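Hi P.,

Sorry for the delay on this. The queue was packed all week, but I finally got your sequence through. Input first:
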Amino acid sequence: MMTQLFFTGILIAAGLFLILADVLKLPAMGAGKAMLGAGKENKKAAKTVEAWLMTGAVKLSKYIRMDEYKRSRMANILKASGISMTPEVYTAYAITKSGAIALGALPCLFLLPLLAPVLLILAVLTYFQETKRADEQLREKREQVEGELPRFVATIEQTLKASRDVLAMIETYKKNAGPAFAHELDVLTADMRSSSYEAALTRFESRLNSPMLSDVVRGLIGVLRGDDSAVHFQMLAHDFKALELQRLKGQAQKIPPKIRIFSFIMLMCFLFTYLAIIALEILNSLGTMF
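Then the structure:
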């Protein structure tokens, strides 16, 4: 009887969804996937559930209001992290995703009451995770870019001895840069060709909001203005090299705890092997005695 009620509820929910989709004139699933995947840096196919959630988020975003400062800040973060959403849609997507999980607690109240609080807690955690996703992606991109800045500064330091063409320096280094930094340099070079060099470098600095990148941009602007920036980049190369060594030491210090776990597992395997051998010897000796 319970199984029949469960499947009946699923069929009723599916029917209500199709009716509401027709009344609200929701786009087809293919259109939802295309909208979700448009503008992504990694061209992965959008999942069906994500397309449904994005469709609901676009509808909900019309009712979300933000103050100008918060909206501008979030728009800059979304643009820098490579998420092609407006701040309203991004916030609505977090609400829609957590709300969909929370709605799953309703049937659990009748079928599995103990599972309902778990789903509610999961919905709250999902909301905070989705709202922080752009900041986490921006932080990862900033770390990747800052990891390449020491080599970038060293290249500029050597190039300044023969040339002061900033655009040529960036174009030359872009060929050997990592994916994240190469993408940012692509945007920078395109911006430099379409506007003034100083304005493009300033926008490049504001996108990532990195203190290390600010020092590099300040030096490049000095080169454009005709200043003798060789000493500036020599000092930056020395400081960035020290920071790079410090970062590598920090990564090396994180490795021993991971190795310690596997060492403990190997130790336990050896102990179980010796215990198994001892147990077999004891059983064999008892068998010969009897």
